[in-house]
Design goal:
The complex is a heterotetramer of chains A (330), B (119), C (122) and D (91). Chain A has 330 residues and is mainly alpha-helical. Chain A is 74% helix and 0% strand. Chain A folds into two domains: 78 residues; 190 residues, no CATH class. The longest helix of chain A has 37 residues. The model of chain A has no long low-confidence stretch (mean pLDDT 86). With 91 residues, chain D is an all-alpha fold. In chain D, helix 1 runs antiparallel to helix 2 and helix 2 runs antiparallel to helix 3. The longest helix of chain D has 33 residues. The chains are: A mainly alpha (330), B mainly alpha (119), C mainly alpha (122), D mainly alpha (91). At the A-B interface, helix 1, helix 2, helix 3, helix 4 and helix 5 of A face helix 2, helix 3 and helix 4 of B.
């Protein structure tokens, strides 16, 4: 039964994607992107990927929309109509991607079907992970175990990619913008004079941050972990920035704290690996951190998840402030 | 039965179509932000394919429950890869948007052909 | 006996919730202009949410899950009307006038307002 | 029974997507997104019970908490734009 739901939702996904590409108003495209993200999250949930769905929810519902809207405010939200001369080129492009899609669809008939337990993916390392997680780490969420311990190198790399992207945005948008006379009054920015969003938003912010901390520290037992928690807490602070104005949020969480979180999180992750080496294990082999290897694993995972959470939260917030500050000056 | 067998491939078809739609936006639209939106659709298509691969018939999410005997779990490995990829996707997307903002400030437009004309 | 009564009550609530959701969805599609559609949306945001969640809570019994359900219901009841208010306010700010019939129904009126100026010289 | 509710929610989601695609004003689209968001929370809760893992309600909770942020961002976007437009008129 639930597969029929998935069928419906996947069809909606395709329709939404086509509508996004066809929309000439970029603002409409961004609005439809948030529907796309919601549909994606439900599909992930139906396909048994609760952690991934939570990540998509945490990132797609708040951060993506806000960053897109900030960029649109800076660049203008209308796509220029295509010139007549390019129409032919578009037709060629349509034919090419159509042929590509047909080729991929043709090739999928060699793939294992959805849910086939004998598929090659399920034969390799996954059963070993499922079997060894209770033994090595003694907690139920296998996804967190793989993320932070079995494939810790991978996650270290991803954290450094987030770090690098954040630094890149700060470099690109950090230069002083071209001078313009229009200066938005700081007192008027934000939703200061809208009483209802003010009250409800102020009520919600502590709960969002609390829920973020819950996903951070409950990640070993349910869906959650550093990535989701970082995005959720960042969303909470972004909500504060929307309500009180961006400058006020920057006063609550200053820029150097954000940079400290980005750098500190990445460093914390790396230094746990080096401490492991100093204590006689391999890089990111947490078993040596405590006398009991299971405790060592749990301690190591707790610390590096905290590092991931700090780095992601700091990076997303720095990116948001970089965009929003430019909007304020220009 | 035949129809049901075909429906087992439906997720892959959606993956293929989304891939094509995203690619079309990237190669045929001149607006840079539209290109980035296309890129993120393309990215989501890849996510969908990975998550499709992890499903096991009758399985549940790979979080071990106490007191359930002979549980079947879906494959956790693709989930780990995609989980990190989503967050990385957002940060790289904002890097692209930052570049677009700078281009707008330097050239006054974000249409690709006008930028090429201006050069 | 009490179990049976609770069961029946929860099924009734769930059915009513489903009906409310449907009515809201159809209203959102069929009503003539934006400010009337908000009414349909608010029906699904509050009434349907309340009915469906109370129905599920009665089914779940007194567990951690029902506590979470209660929290979800509370947050939805808080945020749904707030978001609708914000939206109506944004519409009013950018000059979409409330009125009977299909008034204010210029295609994409909100953005078209300042767009017409940009596009007209071409 | 859960299935009937889920189907009703699904139909409403389809209607909301239709409204989001049709427009005609931007606000109709945003309203449709908002309706779609709350329906997502409902559907996720119902599916969590349908598939017998009610401990996955975290996802619905996350959406219930942060769905509003996007809509508020839209409000601020319009407010800033109307401010900028009126400034441009005054100059």
């Amino acid at each position: 039964m639930i597969y029929i739901f998935a069928l419906f939702l996947l069809t909606l996904l395709v329709i939404t994607a086509i509508a996004i590409v066809r929309a000439e108003d970029l603002f409409v495209a961004v609005i439809l992107t948030s529907i796309f993200s919601l549909l994606m999250a439900i599909n992930f949930f139906i396909l048994d990927a609760a952690d991934v769905a939570l990540t998509e929810a945490a990132v797609g519902a708040g951060v993506t929309t806000v960053i897109f809207l900030c960029a649109l405010a800076l660049t203008g939200d209308r796509e220029k109509p295509q010139k007549e001369g390019r129409k032919g080129g578009q037709k060629i492009a349509l034919v090419i991607v159509g042929v590509l899609a047909l080729l991929i669809i043709y090739s999928t008939f060699d793939n294992p079907q959805l849910g086939d337990p004998d598929a090659p993916v399920h034969q390799h390392v996954a059963p070993w992970y499922l079997e060894k997680t209770p033994q090595y780490m003694d907690f139920p969420n296998v996804v967190t175990a793989i993320l932070s311990s079995f494939r810790g190198y991978d996650t270290l790399g991803e954290v450094f990619v987030v770090f690098a992207a954040c630094i890149g945005v700060l470099f690109i948008l950090g230069v002083s913008p071209p001078r313009k006379s229009m200066q938005v009054n700081v007192k008027q920015s934000g939703l200061r004079h809208h009483l209802i969003p003010q009250v409800v938003g102020r009520l919600l912010i502590p709960f969002i941050v609390l829920f973020g901390l819950y996903t951070q520290f409950h990640g070993e037992y349910g869906p959650g972990g550093g990535f989701q928690a970082g995005a959720l807490i960042a969303t909470g602070v972004i909500l504060y920035a929307l309500l009180e104005g961006e400058a006020e949020a920057l006063r609550a969480v200053p820029r150097r704290v954000l940079l400290g979180m980005v750098v500190g999180g990445a460093l914390l992750y790396g230094s746990v690996g080096i401490v492991c080496m100093l204590m006689g294990g391999a890089f990111l082999d947490y078993s040596v951190l405590a006398a009991d290897p299971v405790w060592g694993q749990q301690l190591g995972i707790l610390i590096i998840e905290a590092g991931v959470g700090m780095a992601v939260c700091g990076a997303l917030l720095s990116i948001f402030h970089a965009f929003a500050a430019r909007e304020r000056v220009s | 039965m035949k129809l049901l067998e075909l429906l087992g491939y439906f997720n892959y078809w959606v993956f293929a179509i989304l891939l094509a739609v995203g690619l079309y936006a990237v190669i045929s639209k001149t607006n840079l932000i539209k290109k980035l939106i296309g890129l993120s659709i393309f990215q989501s298509a890849v996510f969908l394919m990975y998550i499709t691969m992890d499903k096991v018939e009758g399985g549940t999410a790979p979080i071990i429950q106490a007191g359930v005997e002979n549980p079947i779990f879906s494959n956790p490995l693709p989930q780990v890869l995609i989980l990190t990829a989503i967050v990385v996707g957002v940060s790289t997307l904002s890097l692209g948007l930052a570049m677009v903002v700078r281009i707008k400030e330097c050239y006054g437009t974000i249409e690709e052909n006008e930028i090429l004309d201006a050069d | 006996m009490i179990d049976l009564a609770l069961d029946i009550l929860s099924w009734i609530l769930l059915t009513l919730g489903g009906v409310c959701v449907l009515i809201g969805g159809i209203g959102g599609l069929r009503l003539p202009n934006f400010y009337t559609r908000i009414h349909a949306a608010s029906l699904t945001d509050t009434m349907a949410t309340l009915l469906i969640f109370i129905g599920i809570i009665l089914q779940a019994g007194f567990t951690l899950a029902s506590l979470k359900l209660f929290a979800i219901m509370l947050f939805l009841l808080l945020t749904g009307p707030t978001a609708t208010y914000a939206l109506a306010n944004a519409a009013l700010l950018s000059g979409l006038k409330p009125g009977p019939g299909r008034s204010g129904l210029k295609p994409d009126a909100g953005t078209a307002k300042d767009k017409t100026k940009e596009n007209s010289p071409e | 029974m859960y299935i009937l509710v889920a189907i009703a929610i699904l139909v409403t989601m389809v209607l909301a997507v239709v409204r989001a695609l049709m427009g005609p004003t931007v606000y109709d689209r945003v309203l449709a997104v908002n309706v779609f968001g709350t329906k997502t929370v409902l559907l996720l809760s119902v599916i969590a019970f349908l598939s017998g893992r009610p401990d996955f309600l975290d996802l619905a909770l996350a959406y219930a908490l942060i769905n509003m942020v996007g809509i508020l961002a839209v409000l601020e976007f319009f407010q800033n734009r109307s401010q900028r437009n009126s400034k441009a008129k005054n100059d």
